[in-house]
Amino acid sequence: MRRGLPVTLALLVASVLGGLLVGAVPLPAGGVLRALAGLPSGLAPIDRNLLFELRLPRVLMGAAVGGLLAVAGAGYQGVLRNPLADPYLLGAAAGAGLGATVVIVYAPVGPDLGIPLAAFAGALCGVLLAYGLGRSAGSGPATLVLAGVAVSSFLAAVQTFVQQAGVAELQRVYSWILGGLGGASWHTLLVMLPYAAVSVTVLLLHGRLLDVLSVGDEESAALGVNAARVRLIVLAAASLATASAVAASGLIGFVGIVVPHLVRRLAGGSYRIVLPLSFLGGAAFLVLADLVARTVVSPGELPLGVVTAFVGAPFFVLVLRSTRKAAE
């Protein structure tokens, strides 16, 4: 923790500053810092609007979504004792996307409350389906991943079917599928804040219990820990975190598997350390990914999910190979 916390905080601060300063229209660092501190900044009115109405909400949204996906991934890995568990691979993100799509298509007027709730229900159902299918087919990390892929594919097919009933909303639905922070606003941040706060708080409070679960169910019971209850609470909290992120930004993969593994290499395997550092590291990672997405083809913009997949897919292969070697 002593080594990991300064590193993740430094990365987060650097990524946030980069996200605020860099773009199609660069902003002066001194003026931005003074404006954020409430001091006379010398920024032109158009630059102030760019900072406070576009870039700052987008950077904060990226930090929130990245932190939620990373801490959810760490929670799934801890409760399932599977290093390959991830919101995207376990069907949680696909289920949340399906829930959000149903609300968008069938309740397009005023869906601010309905989208996160429907996304949460879909995320929880996706995880439970993948977990149940994986357990019925056998044990092991690869089995659970294959079950998650199967469930994600099925839920994506259902989502496509639902889309056909709401052709007028296709553009909004596809923004969820591709993932991105282009629609970030202060209103969206306020809507997702309660869900994010509850889910992250619950996950952080269960760090010690996840450490106990890692030794096995019988040993946990001997120490007075109800393993089934802990699993249910952590699964629900991780699914709520995933749903909050997906409802705000769409489907963004691999954050929940890349960041927790990097944190473990940096600061050790205790979930009392992995969970908070994953939240900070995930925030920094997604802000940097979004910075790449909106600058590498400027004035155009890449889908954020494409950038995270470009980094995450090779990383996932490395994790899968290392897990297989450890099992042998």
TrEMBL record:
Main location: membrane
CDD domains registered for this protein in UniProt: TM_ABC_iron-siderophores_like
TM annotation in the entry: 58-76, 88-107, 113-131, 143-162, 174-205, 232-259, 271-293, 302-320
Keyword field contains Membrane: yes
Keywords: Cell membrane, Membrane, Transmembrane, Transmembrane helix, Transport
Top-level taxonomic group: Bacteria
Coiled coil: none
Database matches in InterPro entries: ABC_BtuC-like, ABC_transptr_permease_BtuC
Protein name per UniProt: Iron ABC transporter permease
